[in-house]
Amino acid sequence: MATIQVYHEENNRTYQVNVVLNRTLLSDGSGSAEEYLLISTTIRKADGTAFGTYRVKDLTDVPPGYPTASDFTELVNDYIEYFMDQAQLGQSSSSSSLSSSSSSFGITSSSSSSSSPSSQSSPSSESSSSTSESSESSSSTSDSSESSSSTSDSSESSSSSSSL
Amino acid sequence: MAVTYRIYDETQATTRTVNVEFSGNVLAASYGANPYTPRYYFNITTSARDTSNLAFPNIVVLTLSDKVLNGAKQRRSDTAAAYTDIHDMLADYLYDLINGHAADLYSSGVAYKAPMSF
Fold it and tell me: Is residue B71, in this structure, part of any structural domain at all?
């Protein structure tokens, strides 16, 4: 999970953009498990409503109006820019503007498997669904029956040959 | 949130796991090209070992054009095209981890890689 902190210095608030890798069946998919990213944020639109959760299967799944990304760095940065633009975080009475967003907003990035969303309200019900989806992903592999075999994951160590 | 793949070997009745995480960090290896700039990427790791009892290095995938064979070719077929989506990319990387590959497979210039040990 990649968590990007967006600091808005004018209201002294920190928002999060979360990017989570999932693996599940998809309602519009082929019937087999597929991997995809879910991108959500605690940033609110200018009208106060929450952003939805965006599903990314490939580099064409960019924010509305954006061209295909060349890599996942550009794709995530496009979403960050889109959220900030839609929220009009850069529009204020001060002289700062979006063009100087790199200095106006402290965008830092970290990755953590244990990070939780900020205490601010989640973007939408879609976001909460993504949480449940991601929890499913950890056990969604069809190999579960195989895991009942005599060897556990820990057998991957050099001692694995000693198991059955 | 990582996705964990379990790989079962019928002959040995053993299971190995591979973890895939989507992360954002400054990558030391690309410091010169992108100083201080966080990169977002898939990080593929496993504690499994190959048939020579060597650990597999961590794999970083930045884009769907990062093909597993030396960046030049996909593993499952002789194609230089980019992966169609995340699922296609991860399937190819997992296939290569499990099966390894011959040297210069598909004239990709890649070095020999041993398969996963079960």
Answer: yes
Q: What angle do CA A15, A19, B40 make, to 5 degrees?
A: 105
Q: How many domains does chain B have?
A: 1
Positive or negative torsion for Cα B105, B29, A6, A84: negative
Report which of B15, B48, B7 is spatially closest to residue A164, judged by C-alpha positions: B15
- Identify the domain containing residue B83 by its residue range: 2-107
Cβ distance of B41 and A72 shorter than 8 Å: yes
- Residue B35 class from Cβ within 10 Å (0-12 exposed, 13-18 middle, 19+ buried)? exposed
B115 in any annotated domain: no
Is residue B117, in this structure, part of any structural domain at all?
Answer: no
**Residue of A56, A155, A157, A163 to mutate for B, most B C-beta atoms under 10 A:** A155
Which positions in chain A touch B47 (Cβ < 8 Å)? 156-157
Q: Is-contact B30 A61, C-beta < 8 A?
A: no
Report the Cα A128 to chain-centroid distance in Å.
12
Distance between A85 CA and the closest CA of chain B, angstroms: 20
A25-71: pLDDT as tens digits: 999 988 999 999 999 999 999 999 999 999 999 999 999 999 999 99
Check: pTM over 0.80? Answer yes or no: no
Q: Which two tokens stand for residue A40?
A: 């959500």
Q: Please report the number of interchain residue pairs, chain A to chain B, with beta-carbon separation below 8 angstroms.
A: 143
pLDDT for A150: 37
Tell me which residue has tokens 């995530």. A76
- Which chain B residues are closer than 8 Å to A72 by Cβ? 22, 40-42, 62-63
More confident residue, A92 or B104: B104
